[in-house]
Amino acid sequence: MTPNRHDVAAARSQAEAAKARLFGTLADVQQRMKPSNLAQDAVESAAHGVASVVRKGAEAARSRPFATAGVAAAIGLVMARGWIGDIIGGRHETPDAATGLKDKSAARATKG
Questions:
Q1: What long-range pairs does 86-93 form, CB within 8 A, spacing at least 24?
Q2: pLDDT digits (tens, 9 = 90+) for 87-102
Q3: How confident is the model at residue 104 (pLDDT cuts 50, 70, 90)?
Q4: C-alpha angle 76/82/84, rounded to 5°?
Q5: Rounded Cα distance, 58 and 103, in Å
């Protein structure tokens, strides 16, 4: 049996269509894999993630205002611990205007 010319032509046209679809898909993949497109996708993904975290944090803060205030106060105390220590230890006092810094530096120079 010899293959019908119509069947061969149909097979060739199907093969050409499949080849065209394959090359179209490859072109799409190449476009998606460009570094600029990958970087843009990463930035968009990160932005969505940050927005989600911020939204969840805001919801948690609204639902527990006293806990949020306590955490904020604790963070503030930790950040201001040096300043608070200076106040409590009495190291916040400035020299008298009469003695000033100039007199102290002169006293050091005469000692040396």
A1: none
A2: 887 665 565 666 655 5
A3: low
A4: 70
A5: 55
User: Which amino acid appears at position 112 of this protein?
Assistant: G
- Report the Cα 33 to chain-centroid distance in Å: 23
Distance separating alpha carbons of residues 10 and 47, to the nearest angstrom: 50
Q: What is the pTM of this model?
A: 0.41
**Most distant CA atoms of the chain, gap in Å:** 121
pLDDT at 15: 93
Q: In whole angstroms, give the CA distance from residue 8 to residue 13.
A: 9
Phi, then psi, of 55 in degrees rounded to 5: -65, -45
